[in-house]
Amino acid sequence: MRKMFFISFCFLLMNTACGNEGSTTVANSADTRETAVTDSINEAAFWKIIDQSRSAAGNSYPRQITALASILGGFSAEQISGFDDRFKDMLAVSYDGSLWAAATVINGGCSDDCFDYFREYLIAQGKVRFYATLKDPDASVSWIASESQVNWEGLRGVAASVYKKKTGKSLPDSYQPAMKLKGRVPDEDAAIMKYPKLAKKFLGF
């Protein structure tokens, strides 16, 4: 009788230990999932980083490039890659013919590369200005600068540079949002008519 009780007791202990081990595994898995979610960079986190870099630079775009590199340098490789993915998203969102027309007025003409740089510069201004300018480019007249005033190029390459420095590898390029131009680019005369405030500021019309 005692022998049977002892065997049953041992069996119970083994089951309890296995159950606890399973619980620990589940808990660890949950912790891992939570960390993965925390480490991801969603759009809200992206704009927060942009705002931090802009604030640290005293609203100077050239200095903002350096400030962003400093901020991203404290991130994990996964987070840097996530930031770059969101940057690609914003480039896709702003690939808009009406915005391109505005850039043409602001810069007195704007090639494909020029428009890419313009959108980098626009992203650097933060979420509020970014979306407000997409909605009504003429409303940006009080703060926006031409490329002759501020070199628009630079912000896009920061994540790749920091990632390379941290990992010794190139930034993953597997994520590519659809980059389809919305609408079409009006000719310069039509753009001037469409954005009279920008035309007056940058072209003197």
Task: Write structural notes for this entry.
- There is one protein chain.
- This protein has helices at residues 2-39, 43-56, 61-72, 77-93, 97-107, 112-124, 127-135, 158-167, 188-194, 196-203.
- With 205 residues, the protein is an all-alpha fold.
- The chain has two domains: 1-39; 40-203, no CATH class.
- α3 (61-72) runs parallel beside α8 (158-167).
- It is globular.
- The relative contact order is 0.13.
- Residues 1-38 have low confidence and may be disordered.
Summary, kept brief:
This protein has ten helices and no strands.
Average pLDDT across residues?
84
Tell me the overall shape.
Answer: globular
Q: What kind of assembly state do the chains in view correspond to? A: single chain
In helices, the fraction of residues equals 55-70%
Cα gyration radius (Å): 26 Å
* Low-confidence parts: 1-38
Number of domains: 2
Can you summarize the main beta sheet?
none
